[in-house]
Amino acid sequence: MLTSRHEKFLRELFPGDGSLFTPEEKLIFGTDASRLSGQPWAVVRPENREQIVELLRWAEAEKVPLFTRGRATNVVGGAVPDKGGVVVSMLRMNRVRDISAVDFVAVVEPGVINGDFQKELKKRKLFYPPDPASAAFSTLGGNVAMGAGGMRAVKYGVTRDYVLGVEAVLPGGRVMRFGGRCHKNVAGLDLARLFVGSEGSLGVMTELTLKLLPLPEATASLLAGFGTLDAALDAARAVFGCGTLPTAMEFMAGLVLEAIAGEGEAPWPQGTQAALLLRIDGSESAVAEDLRRLEAVFKRYDPTCLLTGRGQDEEPLWELRKLINPASFRIAPNKISDDVTVPRGKVGEAVKRFQALGRERNLKMLLFGHLGDGNLHVNIMHDASNPDELARARQTKEDVLRITIELGGTLSGEHGVGLTKLPYLHWQIGEPERALMRDVKKVFDPSGILNPGKGY
Predict the structure, then answer these.
(1) pLDDT-derived band of residue 265, with 50, 70 and 90 as boundaries?
(2) What is the dihedral of CA 405, 409, 414, 419, to 10 degrees?
(3) Stretch 89-93: mean pLDDT, rounded?
(4) Is 3.30.465.10 the CATH classification of the domain at 96-214?
(5) Domain ranges in the chain?
(6) What was the pLDDT predicted at 14?
(7) Alpha-carbon span 78 to 54, nearest angstrom
């Protein structure tokens, strides 16, 4: 625990409500969207890099663990102070320092909200593609720390593809700047990208330089339902075969569709076993041609429904996708969620094996995800108050992860490792490789004070 001397230092460095010490003030800072929790010794809210430099100098000297935090939207326990220490909330470092339509670059502080940033860019006809499901309230710093993905990844890639530069403070107060404003840079090791997905274990990021793109002139969306899972997967393969690269390609299996229908009127008829939801973008003429081509592709697979929308008319289609989380609790009161990714060609086998697990264990399996890049979200629905059912759900989670590895997949496509995936990471990554990762961490964080026990 902190000594009175420690507390005095923190109060002076972070005056007023910049530092929190009472149990009531600290409570919310001990948890994240994983619903795991810990007990922080204190919470600090830096407003500038200079405060962070002094904090990291002090923490290294006193060997005090630090847990950096944004909006804590991650679902793997990545922001939980499970070992006790000081939580560093970055929400007050939320300035957009520069947006350049000449360099196609933005310089931001880590506490900027992704959705707010995208709205500001849209006014200037600029575009930042990474769009995690939490974009409306997650921070850019958190997105970088956890290596966030999103629905537009199939065409535009993920967060790591847009990080050009990172300014970070390392233990001891060392300020480091990696990368810069250039879109191409192969001078030395790419240490900026090393911070993407590092889960706050290497340094405290104070500034990010992000790549921007021109805002597409037009967008359109298409929702197609199918009578069988195989028809949906065949149609998805045909999309790539027709020469059109969707911005997003979302997949929803039958039970997901039933749950959404329970929330209100759904456009697909009863008996629909799978649905695809696509978005395309580009020039007006290109979008019109791609939409015509995709409609023709889907009609070859006897869709149970086929709806399209352009511009504002797209939003009702995507609202259906957003209903998945609240609708899931119509199936059961609790769920164990996993984010796994398999090679594109193995998606069908993965879905069928996961569904078979659910039937074998008498559990409802909600399956959906980003089909374009093989990223599946597996929700194991159960009643946690029933000990037997909870045990079956936990065993099913392990079996889902084992099947994923067997298929050449990864235990985490976009959510990170944190605490919840760490016990299984050795199934995918060998001890020599993990030891090397820990050696890299020691170079940045010799005393292991930054988010200890997470990620690797």
Answers:
(1) confident
(2) 10
(3) 98
(4) yes
(5) 4-89, 96-214, 218-407
(6) 98
(7) 24
DSSP state string for 364-421 = EEEEEEEGGGTEEEEEEEE-TTSHHHHHHHHHHHHHHHHHHHHTT-BS-SSS--TTTT
54 contacts 23 by C-beta, under 8 angstroms: no
Per-residue confidence (pLDDT) for residue 423, from 0 to 100 = 96
Count the residues in the chain. Answer: 456
Residue type, 216: P
Kindly state the tokens that stand for 8: 């005095």
How far is Cα 357 from Cα 367, in angstroms, rounded to an integer? 12
CATH fold label, 218-407: Vanillyl-alcohol Oxidase; Chain A, domain 3 (3.40.462)
The amino acid that residue 11 corresponds to is R
Beta bridge partners of 218: 282
Q: Average pLDDT, stretch 65-83?
A: 96
Predicted TM-score (pTM) of the model is 0.95
Mean pLDDT of 179-185: 97
pLDDT over threshold 90, residue 297: yes
> Are 96-214 and 218-407 the same fold in CATH?
no
How far apart are the C-alpha atoms of 202 and 147, rounded to whole Å? 14
- So what CATH class is 4-89? alpha beta
